[in-house]
User: What shape does this take?
Amino acid sequence: MRIEEAIQQTKPFRNGHHKVIVNLIFTSNWVQDSIKKALKPFGVTIQQYNVLRVLKGAGKPISTSTIRERLLDKMADTSRMVDRLFQKGLVLRQECEYDKRLVDISLSEAGKELLDSLKTVNPQLDAILNNLTEAEAQQLSDLLDKARG
Assistant: This one.
């Protein structure tokens, strides 16, 4: 569906740049809604899932500031998210070896198990953009990289 139809746009966009910005915002929200639906049965938000993935990718305990740097959503309150994940038993906290003011975060066994069970959602997540071929998906990703400079 064209963006004009999706948002019921009756007037033309100022230019192609305006159109693509509106389309990116609309599509981003649509993709996030789809991901939220897929994650809901597992009791985690997109942001919490992102924190868990960052921790898994790190492969070792890391600080909340390092987590924040690696998050997709830079506006997220990392400390609060880590607290919630800790309350759910999905992460562990330990005093940083070299700076006692910092706390290192790592995945708990329950966090690892949750990430393993979330692998079942991957086909559903991949299907969000199944209207694109693999080549088109790569081209879109390359164009988005180029747009960010």
Q: What stands out?
A: The chain has a mean pLDDT of 92. Residues 59 and 106 are 8 Å apart (CA to CA). The chain is about 60% helix and 10% strand. The beta strands are 62-63, 91-95, 103-107.
